[in-house]
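Can't paste images in this forum, so I'm doing it all in text. The chain is below; anyone willing to post the predicted structure tokens underneath?
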Amino acid sequence: MFRSHTCGELRLSHIGNEVTLAGWVQRSRELGGMTFLDLRDRYGITQLAFNLEDNAVLCAQAGKLGREFVIQVIGKVIERTSKNKNMLTGDIEIVVSNLVILNSAKLPPFTIEDETDGGDELRLQYRYLDLRRNTMQEKLRLRNKVALQTRIYLDSKDFLDIETPFLIKSTPEGARDFVVPSRMNEGQFYALPQSPQTFKQLLMVSGFDRYYQITKCFRDEDLRADRQPEFTQIDCEMAFVEQDDILNTFEGLIKHLFKTVRGIDFTEAFPRMDYSEAMSRYGSDKPDIRFDMEFVYLTNETKGKGFAIFDDAESVIALNAVDCVEYTRKQIDELTEWVKRPQIGAKGLIYLRCNADGTFKSSVDKFYTQEDLAAWAKKANANPGDLLFLLSGDLEKTRKQMNELRLHLGSELGLRNPNVFKPLWVMDFPLLEWDENNGRYHAMHHPFTSPKPEDMHLIQTDPGKVRANAYDLAMNGVELGGGSIRIHDRDLQSRMFDLLGFSKEEAQAQFGFLMSAFEYGAPPHGGLAFGLDRLVATMGGSESIRDYIAFPKNNSGRDTMIDAPSPLNAEQMAELGIKLK
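Text version of the structure:
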């Protein structure tokens, strides 16, 4: 054995014991005739002591060790005279009697510390070094705990962990597929699964009424902080269930995870909100309900006063930032520039300051009287000291812009505490959304989502008003997961394909295997999938999933550590029957 104990294990109870430790040199320092090293492994840090008077050769050898050298030491545990309360092993140190250098190390390109000086791209390039940092290891330990407790909970509910294929057929719905050429079937391609959707439905047809797997999924889409081209889902499906059965089961999973992993006990049922209400109040289908600041519609109160931006707008929406009257004009100007960025797309930002003396100050004073502005404030329940922000334009677009502003203000004002967790079920999404460019409907979730039974009569006459038997779980402004009750009837599934613009031939070519399975007694079924990366990041209080994935891609979808993707050589291309344009 290279070690008898780990670097986070030794305590006062071990004083007098001879121990063997192995790990990486975190840092070194010399004080008088003593040399001290901090030795690190994934369990913690232990201080090593070398005394010049006791062993000058050994002390000199220790003084030459650089950061990240891998060493093994043998020594006796003693009580530290100067204790470090910030270290679990801070009451003891090891007086070293033997030192073995297991491997030397180049000077790292950034410091291996909790607060590193390495930028994001540098850390991704040297990910194996970045993962040595305690903060990174804590994140992956959290991920491990969440995955373990997920398995424990689902196993207790009689779910079976069943694998599904990675090499499947390309389908036209959803994001772009990653495709894999088949050498044995020249000119044909597999696709990597965006989700195991059809396979888990087939497992329900097969009689496995409770399925799950923690599996990789792949989507070729533009990236941002909470997206990766390959990500991990907690993928689940149940048969002979209705919507409430699924919501109760997986609400139970989330409660179990927070209690066992974070020590947080959700005692109340998670609130539920219709999609239409969420969009009206927050402009988002995954609203952050840790803070109020709901939308206030001032369309009628602002029109007819000669201010064209409001007069010509479909909708005027306001937010009430409570107790923000001290916001400076410079801060408001910065917010105005922020909402005008291309990512947001607003043309400008109007404000109304509610002064302590009961008067009002606005950027559109010349168009509106004090009485007009007082009417705005009254409808927004604004009091002296509050600050209203207004955006206007097309209803749907303005809601989305105001949602971004609401989240931004929530962060600026410290209202989005990462250690406060507010779950919300969002229900009854639209089944379809209209694509103006292609002149046809798309499934808002996927083509296997069942319509609400009470809306079935609208499928032929007014399909845009049909609601889906679908649900998402949002928390802190993040969609943790979502699912639906599936279509299990062949005729209804065929009608859905017709509605989505599939020809009979296209539907048969793409999904004939599923339609065929439905002819052999498909049970009512539905399911849900959680994004494990997002779930763990949210539980860890982070908005980025990247640090909770061992080897993520950058914003361009590249792995800069191994330099992937990369070209294939000519021989491989010829073997696959592929030529580049």
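The domain at 292-416 is CATH 3.30.1360.30 (Gyrase A; domain 2). The chain has 16 helices and 22 strands.
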